[in-house]
Structure formats: structure tokens, C-alpha cells
Amino acid sequence: MSTTTYPVTWDLETFFRGGSESEELRAHLDEGAEKVRSYAKAVADFSTPEAADAAEKIVALIEQTKNTSAHLREAGAVIGCFLAQDTTDKKANLLQGETSALGAKFQTAFMSLQQKLSKTDEKVWEELLASGQLEEFSFILGEWRKKAGAKLPEEQEALITGLSVDGYHGWGELYDLLVGDMQVKVTVDGEEKVLSVGQANNLGTHSDPAVRKEAFEKLEAAWAEKEEFFAKALNSLAGFRLQVYEKRGWDQVLREPLEYNRMKQETLDAMWGAISANKGPFAEYLNRKATLLGKDQLDWYDFFAPVSESASKLDYQDGAEFILKHFGKFGPELESFARMAFENGWIEAEDRPNKRPGGFCTGMPLSEESRIFMTYSGSMSNVATLAHELGHAFHSYALRPVHQLNRQYAMNVAETASTFAEMIVADAAVKEAGTKEEKIALLEDKAQRSVSFFMNIHARFLFETRFYEERKKGVVSTARLNELMEEAQREAYAGALGEAHPHFWASKLHFYITGVPFYNFPYTFGYLFSLSIYAKALEEGEAFEEKYMALLRDTAVMTTEDLAMKHLGEDITKQDFWEKGVRLCIRDVEEFLSLTSNEG
Ligand SMILES: [Zn+2]
């Protein structure tokens, strides 16, 4: 029973009053333009250090970098929220263009600073670091130096950054516009409903197979109808990316995402190796689920079908209490943080039209707050998503004592705190289950998550890797995109997939994110990485929270290999490490298989 009523919509007024028409926001953006101008001038006036006495100047520039970037990101995050809550907000759309242009100007100056620092003579560099003033930033400065050294000359990189506003990021923004505009008609409970893509996707958990099938088919048809637009956007943004790589002399498409995630290729190979070697039990789970649903094989639209009538539904208030209760068992900080987020309107969860599909968490660096976006319709998977996004927000919270420049953690570890929070909720729910039916439903939920990370994400990774290889040779046709996607799905689901989802390349927004390439394997990394942290948390109890927060604080100042070694004592370039996590998932699946062995 809920005692408090938490708001279902978020509060954005604390940042700028008056929504996208806000005068405060207007003034903030004008101030941002001024900040970018003076930052660019300061960088232009700075020259490559020739002696250790430049340390003070570098520290001052770092502060200016921090302030300018935080100012812009504050606006960018809030505008992103405006667009997510109402895809028809045209003013917000214009403002997004404006901030993204400002952001590109800032990036150009920022990169110039990195270039200038990267040219510092090795001996001077060592003296600078030895001076003590830059110690806090030694990792990030070293990374800048390394990255800038691998790029084109400054003017050329500046040109690329400038051109990328319309020629690259514009494609991703066009995608969001196209999707926000899409509607499908689905008959639910005898009534025809006009639904947004997000709402129709949520029907994948509906108990009526006819509803799931119809929603899937209507969506497939909607994607197919617009497939040429999506193929154009995907080919163009990939083409842009590949052109840039080619000019820089980078032949591996994975180079940028691996560097971005501060991890080695051998670590990625070890992770997929451990997963590929252990797909059997997950395929068996899918086949069992098909049997329970009275089918020979599981079709795409049945992945999230409830296997039993008792699959729990929780209204938003109860979902919130459920999360708080289980967070509390892990540690007091996580619980009190989440309670504050629920109470203070940090979360937008209402189920209504014109919202963007999916969920996210965004940080406002000036206010030191976060906002969470999702569409909550009461399924356990919605509760898990909510816990997931709260995990992201908690990560930002843990990083508050750390300098802004040392908070830029990568995707793979970004998904660690989120999946960790998700796991607390999912695992505790299984233990608490009152009936066998409920236990089956909850184990099912966990199995679904493993399938998502080990099969769905694997399919995305396989598709994207192969698509980029073909794109190097020219534009990839829609027919070929569908084919590549279906092949990737068949392989990733290890023969346990009935009807595939060939237009998944159009429906999954992650393929259109330009901020970060290959927005897929870091999820799986985060999931398995979290599992091993979670195992330690179970061993050590509440005392672990402090260590956990120390690990989170270190997420942006070392490679993932070093992070795991320092805080977990594990070598993540070895398949063994990843297999430990996979085995925990297999245990859940085996319990599900044994509980359902007499049914269906
Ligand atoms: Zn996430």
C-alpha cells in the first residue's frame, strides 16, 4: 500500500520557467553563446606549453571548459526533455538546433585545446604533470593527448565538427522527428486505438496474443511504409562516420566505440565469446516459452508475452514503493536518493500520446539534478526500467564530489549502475514471490532480460558490424538491410526464433544515435559487469555500498580493465570473468525450466 502519492510527471520548471517559450532559457542560451565566444578566444590565445610554468594557465582553461560545457549541457538536457515529453513541441525543436550549433562551436574550441596540449613536448609534459597542479586530471589529459594525436590536423577536425551539425547529427534528429510523427491503429479490448510507437511497443506485453500480433504487424507495416526514409538516414549517418574514419586513416569501425568505452578489443571478444559459448540454456528457455504459449517456436512479438495470468501488474505508486523497499535492502544512500527523486518530480512516467518512445535519464550539470523519462504502463518490465533509470541518476549523484571533467564516464560503465539497480529489484522480487505462478513470472522477467542482453543486443551488434562493412563499399539497400537484420537475429537467437523482425534496423532508435557509435555492446558489458559487482554486494551486505560508490566515482578516471582490477580484483580480458556472470543468469533460467517442466 502506498502512503505517499508521487507525481507521475516531472518538474522542469525548476530549471527554466515557462517551458520551451521560457525567457529564462532564452537568456541562458544567449549567455551560453557569449561563454562559447570567450572560451574560443581563450583557447585561441593559448599556445602549446613550452615550460612547466604553464600549469596554472592550463588549470584556468580546464575550469573554463568545465563551466562552458556545463552551461550548454544544462540547456541541452532540458530541451531534450521538452522534446521527449511532447514530440510536437516545435519551439523546442528549434532550440535543439540552436544548442547543437553552439555545442559544435564549443567542441571545435575544446578540440583545439586538446590539440594544442597534445603537441606538448614529452619532457615538458612530464614536468607539467610533476608540478602537482594537474595531478587530478592526469588520466583525462593523457587521454586527450592520445586521442588528439590520432586525429587529423586541427583545422580539418574543426571543419568536420562544423559540417557534422547538419550533415551528421541532423540525420539522427530527422529520425526522431519521423518516429515521433508515426501513429498506428490497433484494436485493444474491442476498441480501435490510435497509438504512438511507444504505446504500440508496450502492447508487446499484452496477454492477448491477437493484440500482440496485430500491434507487431501494424508496426512492421508502418516501418516498411517509411523504410526508404529510414534507410536514407541510416546510410547517410553511417557514410559520414566512415568518411571521417577513412580520412583519419582508421580502418577498424570498432576503434572509436572501443576507445570511447575505454576498453580493449580482447575484452569485447572475451565477453561475446563467453556468451556465444553459453547460448544453449537461453534457447531452451525460449523454446519452453513457446510451448507454454502453445506454439512450436517463439515469434518476435511473443518475447514479452506474459506466460501466466498472474504476471503482476503494479500501478505507479506501488511500483515506486516496490523499488524503494528493495533499494533499501541494498543500502541507505540508494534508497534515500531514489525517494528524493520520486518526491521531487525527477520522473516523467505518464502514459499519454505524443511522448517519445523508450526511456532515458539525463543529467543537468549546473543544477546537479537528473531527470528520468519513460512511459509507465504497469508491467514488471516498466518497474525494472524505472529502477534502471534511477541507477543512472544514482551514478551521477555518486559523482557529485568529483570534478566535472572527471565525470565523463563511458557507456559500458554507464550501464553498470543502471543494470545493478535493475537487478536489485528483479532479484528481490523473485525471492519475495508468494506463489509458484508469481515466481515463474518473475524468473521469466529475468530470463527476458538475459535474452535481451545476450541475444537481442548481440543481434544489434552483429547487424551493425556487418552493415558497416557493407556500407564501406556503398549504399546498402532496404532489402539488404532487412536481410542483414534477419540473419543477425537468426544467429543471435541460436535457432530459437520463429518470425523475425526484419525492420528492427528502422524501429530501434539506437542505430540513429550520433553522439556515440555502436550503442549496443556497452549494455551487455554493463549487465555482466553489474552481475559480478552484485555478487560481491550479496556477500558483503550493506557495508558494500561505500565501496560501490567508490567504484562509481572512479568510473571516469581509468580504463575498464583497470577499474575491474582495482575494485574487483578481476581480469576482464579473460573469458572466465564473463562466464561467471553468464552462469548466474543460467541459474535463473534453469530454475524457470524446472518450475515449468510439467506445464504447457
Ligand atoms: Zn541505460
Automatic annotation (TrEMBL):
Protein known as: Oligoendopeptidase, pepF/M3 family
Peptidase M3A/M3B catalytic domain: residues covered: 207-580
Residue ranges of domain Oligopeptidase F N-terminal in the record: 118-183
Family: Belongs to the peptidase M3 family.
Transmembrane segments: none
Taxonomic superkingdom: Bacteria
Gene Ontology biological process terms from the UniProt entry: proteolysis
Cofactor annotation remark: Binds 1 zinc ion.
